[in-house]
Automatic annotation (TrEMBL):
SUPFAM superfamilies: ABC transporter transmembrane region, P-loop containing nucleoside triphosphate hydrolases. The chain crosses the membrane at residues 20-44, 56-89, 127-151, 157-176, 251-269, 281-302. This is ABC transporter transmembrane domain-containing protein. The keyword Transmembrane applies. It is found in: Cell membrane. It holds the Pfam family ABC_tran. Residues 20-304 form the ABC transmembrane type-1 domain. Residues 337-572 form the ABC transporter domain.
Amino acid sequence: MFQVFKKLDWFFKHYWKRYLFAIIALICASTLALIPPKFVGFVIDQIQFETLTTRILVMLISAYVVLALMHYIISFLWDYTLFGGAVILERWIRSKLMGHYLKMTPTFFGKFKTGDLMARSTNDLKAIALTAGFGVLTLVDSSIFMLMIIAVMGFTISWKLTLAALIPLPIMAIVMNKYGAAIHARFTKAQAAFGDLNNEVLESIRGVRVIRAFVQEKQDEQRFAQMTEDVYEKNMAVAKIDALFEPTMKILVGMSYTIGLGYGAMLVFNNIITLGELVSFNVYLGMLIWPMFAVGELINILQRGNASLDRVHEILDYQPDVKSPKQPKQLKTVDQIDFNRISFKYPTSSMIRMEDFSLQVKKGETIGIVGKTGAGKTTLFKLMLRQYPGMDGSISFGNVNINNLDLQKLREFIGYVPQDQILFSKTIRENIQFGKADATDEEIYRVMELAHFLDDMKQLPKGLDTQVGESGVTLSGGQKQRVALARAFIKKPEILILDDSMSAVDGKTESKILEHLRKERKNKTTFIAAHRMSAVMHADQIIVLADGKIVEHGTHDSLVQQGGWYKEQYELQQLQHEEGIS
């Protein structure tokens, strides 16, 4: 049960001063809380023996006011310090999680769904923070505070009465242990179900246009209702165990009260204790209610925190399958790129996606890559970005194997515009500044001209300050592609990769973008993957891929003369273009 504290020892060791202060202040506040019941018993005895004076009463009331003020100040200090530590822990782990996500490769995101990762980053972190705050409070109150109350009852009133009243405690320990094991198992299932529900909601919101287009609203509602019901049932299973804690504690506390009153009254009749001491004893018994409840709350919180921490550790313990070398080699510029007999298959597939691929690219060249869907164009770019491990052969930048380069440095060389455009829920300006954080509006306008987006921007309500919505939902497909192109252009990378990134723009716009690109990218290397041959006609080298192999290689003119797949596609597209014009 206390394993969760051991798992968090790295945090407690770092903030040991904060927690030591909080615990000491909490104990001091608890000590002050033990004094008033003695005052009550003393006053009752003074009244019974008719010895109470005004002076004594004023002194007691004054002392009580001072105690209340001291208790208030100390309670504020321990509360702020203790629960402040819990907030720090939540922030710390959330930052670690976010940093960890950014290091992960596609393999990781293929294993864990986005909704589940969100659940672990929110609900599970709340449960862990609760352990570091309320969990520590219940630990102290259910152990130290309880022992302090018992000691005061035993030493200052009667050990016989105290031990008799505490008979139900062993029963409580056994019952709470069983409840705790059940909560751990059920809470883990509930959190997993919540993660699945999160993922379903995320996909439904992202795909709302498709859902509407295919008139799948009712079916989606039914799926959501089923998952909601599953989450409800699993959380109700947790709630049932939770609900057993309070009545169980009340029964046990009631038994303690019954024993205390019955046996205590007998001791008063036999003049072993006074009436005031019996009243004080019952006040202390009342004070024991919270520590007894705290035992149940402690077990509940620790089991939830332990389950959540295990789920978070499952993520943090997952090591990225692509890492920077411990001693990376330095490279200032990329004079040449060599692909030497590359072969590759994805970790989750047995199909070879690249096979014996070799190519030499000199600085300043434009490389056109064409082929059927699934030929391996995107796979080649992912290997250049080192998104996957397990590649046979080598890719070298300037005679340095990319495996020997720091990952961040490698990706700084490259500007990548993928097939699926990812725009953030920010303004157009902020999206383009992802390529260069300190880019001025003048620079942004310049790259937007290169991406042929200036005319479109004039139609937008707030220009550069227009919010694009989640994933760029307020922009058309062609507009999103051109904003993504501008974001890559402003980076001015040594190597620019355009992965079919102009498929949603018309041929005229594409030709203007390519014309700007040729002027802008002189002496810099560019890779262009496309299905339209017009996008690669100007390339210094054009390769045709089929099943991850180079089946044709040359310039536009030489490939047309070869009479292979490239020529067929080029002539077909030319014919379609002419028919479209006519």
